[in-house]
Amino acid sequence: MVSIKSEREIELMREAGRILARVHEELEHALKPGMSTLDVDRLGEKIIRGYGCIPSFKNYNGYPASICVSVNDEVVHGIPNKHHYLKEGDIVSLDAGVIYKGYHSDAARTHGIGQISPEAQKLIDVTRQSFFEGIKFAKAGNHLNDISSAIQAYAEGFGYGVVRDLVGHGIGSHLHEDPEVPNFSQKRRGILLRPGMTLAIEPMINEGSWDVVWMDDDWTVVTRDGSLSAHYENTILITEGEPEILSLLK
Ligand code: MF3
Ligand code: CO
After folding, report:
1. Rounded alpha-carbon distances, angstroms, from residue 167 to 25, 177, 185, 208, 248
2. Binding positions for a divalent metal cation 1 (predicted)?
3. Which numbered atom of ligand 1 lies nearest the CA of 175?
């Protein structure tokens, strides 16, 4: 069932989103070569708790950290590791979730470490833009598949692969709520979008094929062909007019 949030719930999700946007900004500024992916997680958890929030990923289905740190060909759910150091030229996807007074916000960003290749930068930029192309259709009266199709069409226009095995989701008092939000077109139009729905829209885009594999840790998802992957996600609110991006600062 897809829930419609009350004005009170929306206000709490706005605050959760504002905090999460700041968490991402602070993490972005802290990233540098030589930092371990575990350092990123520790710092992220400290920032989240400093805002009085709970890191929603920690222990979620047994996930052992607060921030998913996915480097280069890692698509999502990379597990922070004290022996994995970030180096110049890497691209790193940071996915974080916070709970504020019982309400969730979920967002991801991909950053370059130091100087990165123009190809890597383009993948990051197109992945981010595919989110914005998708939410042009995130309006009451449209159907969910309008968003999914727009994301896919934009990313595939650059020859990139749109990951099929993982999708976005509804969000609210739970991290994952109905509906699923694919980043690729479906045969069905999907649910009718209505004001008060809150969605985590999260394109995962590969430089090569869309195909992915799970590592032996049962979490880390990597591209099957070893190509780079980028991730961009925000929690949004469907309104009577333009969607509100809750996890971005205006
Ligand atoms: N943004 C991801 C998702 O919505 C993050 C989940 S990581 C997990 O599924 F550890 F919490 F599973
Ligand atoms: Co998510």
Report:
1. 24, 12, 12, 18, 20
2. 95, 106, 233
3. 4
